[in-house]
Amino acid sequence: MGQILAIDYGKARCGIAATDDMQIIASSLDTVETRFLMGFLKKYVTENKVEGVVVGLPTDLKGNVSEVETDILKFIEEFQKEFSGITVHRLDERFTSKMASFFISQSGKSKKKRQEKGLIDKVSATIILQNFLEQRIR
């Protein structure tokens, strides 16, 4: 068994989370500028056994897909060319940023740390991954 990664894809930066090799625990991994995402993933995949990737599906309350989806689809196409053996999953990411902000605020971090967008992106990716793991069990 290998890890599953989650990516909270954004125009400027992406939050990344990973499971353990047994795919039980989701943990935040890093925040990477979007332009460096493929390089980060190439390095990570060569150093770790990665079985799947979950990419957030950005939708609004009505279920309409956000404009960043065009960029996400290009990324997924590039990812699948580079890593043909790794399965790509999609998961609705509605409210993950709000949930991440809430969890961070409850963690006792300073106000400055709570407003750090990179931290929110990492936690959002972790929430996406945890939701994916929970849905798989059902």
UniProtKB/TrEMBL annotation:
It is found in: Cytoplasm. The keyword Cytoplasm applies. SMART domains: YqgFc. GO terms for molecular function: hydrolase activity, acting on ester bonds; nuclease activity. One of its GO terms (cellular component) is cytosol. Keywords: Cytoplasm, Hydrolase, Nuclease, Ribosome biogenesis. This is Putative pre-16S rRNA nuclease. It comes from Chryseobacterium luteum.
